[in-house]
């Protein structure tokens, strides 16, 4: 199957610089209502890892007709990839037509080949004629929201309502804010990620996100007797609310920390006029999938296309391991201060 046109003449593709990012943002804002992860403001958060967002734009007669943001990641363990974009569920290629799409794909593969990269990964929300190699093992869990929190509450199962009440009766409270809550969030998040056996983002990264998106980003902290025991990091994305990062301390699991915290965030989303809440991606029937589904969230298919950048290369279609076995067990035994130091060096190389 041929996925990239051999002869592209009417469209010119180039990487745009910082002086042209306003034209980039204008284009994506006109083409998608939820343009958050496409925005050029993400450059600074990525730069905290010394990663550059390369923004390819297709031009026809001087006007942008397609865009593709990419990040080059290199690792001896995980390989060499160009991803659009790491860490996010979807943020792939946008184009007015097939010619613009093919031109962007051709240029992406060309740049990947020149750099010795194995493949280009495009994370799309809709199926497209991009490549015969596509991973569909993850779904985005999305809940359509009613107009009010009261209506949402009435739609929950008795089990969910009881779990929320359990935490509330224990005295748990939740507050929302910004930079003033970052330390509490990061302390909970980094401990939980260590306990899960996974590397965590750096505090600098979250600070950069808050600085870049002061109107969109909100930090939520669940407290018990004043101590932070849970944290969520939401971002408004058009009419949707996203929650890219959330954690709670497992010591308090019996108090249903996540139920109290998520109910607070969902109620806030309704009050803000959001029409949907995106819980993030999950593997169908996994533990996180079931947690999200109990709120009424429904799976939305994700399409992660792989474009080989080396002749004869067949991309590995198997999903990455959710846990790396022995490595995760060792990580769980490390002191938190050490995982905070090493973790960002790992996560910058993981898509």
From TrEMBL:
The keyword Cell wall biogenesis/degradation applies. The keyword Transferase applies. Gene3D superfamilies: 3.40.630.30. Residues 159-292 form the BioF2-like acetyltransferase domain. Pfam families: Acetyltransf_6. GO terms for biological process: cell wall organization; peptidoglycan biosynthetic process; regulation of cell shape. It comes from the Bacteria. Keywords: Acyltransferase, Cell shape, Cell wall biogenesis/degradation, Peptidoglycan synthesis, Transferase. Coiled coil: none annotated. GO terms for molecular function: aminoacyltransferase activity. Belongs to the FemABX family. NCBIfam families: pepcterm_femAB. This is FemAB family protein. It comes from Symmachiella macrocystis.
């Amino acid at each position: 199957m041929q996925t990239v046109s051999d002869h592209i003449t009417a469209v010119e593709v180039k990487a745009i610089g910082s002086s042209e990012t306003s034209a980039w943002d204008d284009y994506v804002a006109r083409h998608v209502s939820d343009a958050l992860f496409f925005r050029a403001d993400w450059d600074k958060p990525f730069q905290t890892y010394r990663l550059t967002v390369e923004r390819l734009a297709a031009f026809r007669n001087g006007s942008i007709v397609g865009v593709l943001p990419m990040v080059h990641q290199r690792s001896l363990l995980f390989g060499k990839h160009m991803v659009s974009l790491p860490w996010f569920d979807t943020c792939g290629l946008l184009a007015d037509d097939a010619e613009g799409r093919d031109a962007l794909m051709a240029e992406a593969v060309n740049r990947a080949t020149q750099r010795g990269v194995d493949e280009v990964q495009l994370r799309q929300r809709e199926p497209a004629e991009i490549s015969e190699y596509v991973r569909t093992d993850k779904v985005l869990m999305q809940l359509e929201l009613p107009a009010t929190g009261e209506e949402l509450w009435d739609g929950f199962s008795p089990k969910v309502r009881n779990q929320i009440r359990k935490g509330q009766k224990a005295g748990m409270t939740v507050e929302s804010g910004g930079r003033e809550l970052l330390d509490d969030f990061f302390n909970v998040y980094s401990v939980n990620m260590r306990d899960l056996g996974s590397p965590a983002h750096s505090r600098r990264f979250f600070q950069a996100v808050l600085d870049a998106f002061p109107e969109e980003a909100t930090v939520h902290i669940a407290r018990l007797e004043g101590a932070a025991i849970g944290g969520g990091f939401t971002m408004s994305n058009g009419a949707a609310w996203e929650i890219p990062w959330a954690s709670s301390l497992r010591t308090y699991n019996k108090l249903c920390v996540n139920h109290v915290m998520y109910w607070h965030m969902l109620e806030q989303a309704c009050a803000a006029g959001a029409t949907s809440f995106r819980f993030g991606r999950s593997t169908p029937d996994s533990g996180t999938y079931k947690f999200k589904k109990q709120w009424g969230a429904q799976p939305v298919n994700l399409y992660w296309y792989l474009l080989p950048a080396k002749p004869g290369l067949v991309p590995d279609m198997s999903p990455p391991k959710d846990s790396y076995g022995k490595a995760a067990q060792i990580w769980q035994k490390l002191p938190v201060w050490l995982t905070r130091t090493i973790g960002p060096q790992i996560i910058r190389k993981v898509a």
